[in-house]
Amino acid sequence: MADGSGRGRDAVLTVDNLSVDALTPQGARRVIDGISFALAPGETLCLAGESGSGKSVTALSIMRLLPRASLRIAGGDIRLERQSLPRLPERAMRDVRGGEIAMIFQEPMTSLNPVHSIGAQLTEAIRTHQGAEGSSVERRARDMLNVVHISDPARRMKQYPHELSGGMRQRVMIAMALSCRPKVLLADEPTTALDVTVQAQILKLMRELKREFGTAIILITHDMGVVAEMADRVAVMREGRVVEAASVLDIFERPQADYTRELLAAVPRLGAFAGTDAPPRVTATPRPPAPDGQAPVLSVKNLVVDYGASSNLFRRRASEAPAVQDVSFDIRPGRTLGLVGESGSGKSTTGKAVLGLVPFTGSVILGGTSIRGLSASAMRPVRRAAQMIFQDPYASLDPRMT
Fold first, then answer.
1. 330 vs 1, 300, 303, 325, CA distance in Å?
2. What pLDDT, in 10s, does the model give residues 351-382?
3. Domain residue limits, the chain
4. What is the pTM of this model?
């Protein structure tokens, strides 16, 4: 299918003239306005556009996961092969959801259940949609973790979401989505907030899985670099409309819509275009040394964080590989220390330990106060003096408060 009309005969998924309204005190407001596209088996369609253009609402409409109190499908149709999804009873839609169409959400920490282990969540998905039982379910779950390149799957299945890095949680979400071999995979910004090495691994993994299983993919992104790497076709969205739909080559080489050209013009490029001046060379400038005798505002010595050694009233788990092992550093006033490493290397866990948010051994002295073993009341003035900006705003902000 070279066009975005949504009427290809061989389509596995067709979105035909879809409209969605937001329900407000002032009345209904159109947020998706008559969009159409189709998806062939084994094809990747990228929905591209700025934040708020309607990409995620489109995906939630396909999954029939729109919040009923605030959004509703106002017109059009969504067809999985020949069955109309908006007309399916909810019981039948539950079988489609996760079985024939699966979705990878933008932030896995808010999508995975924090009180159930990774293994419990994986095996539940397999039992629900495939009717499998017994040891075959556990074996299938371990196999899927291997497929998404998670090492030591037997150990990972016993862990909980907070014990995994962002990249590993995203791979778990991909494993869950693909465990039932869906015909269509919706991926909503699957590499947002991941470091560049993990982003490359996730995109490579999605290409491998598409080749192996023949899964059709709708990839939602505002990153035109990801679009160039992954897409067969592109639908560019703005303010709830598809302003241009074409092959990825046509989008990048022969864009027709002004907005598409604006998106492409905003993509940073390395090097210079022919006939222009070379970009200036950037070099690092050494900072002056700290004044003699200036005490560190933060001193960390021999820091160890070992999730595997945690215990509760009923059992103590055997110690496993520590998340952070023997980390030491000092930061003096007015200085910036960068913690650099791949996903899962312990960067975020180190930050949480410094603020006493996870148990640790070793020494952390913050503003002259050793925080190890401090009570909750004693930690309050420390936390007023030291703040943390967390990676995921969805899991950090209270959804019940303005």
1. 58, 6, 12, 16
2. 999 999 889 999 999 988 899 988 888 888 88
3. 10-100+185-197+209-268, 112-181, 298-308+321-396
4. 0.72
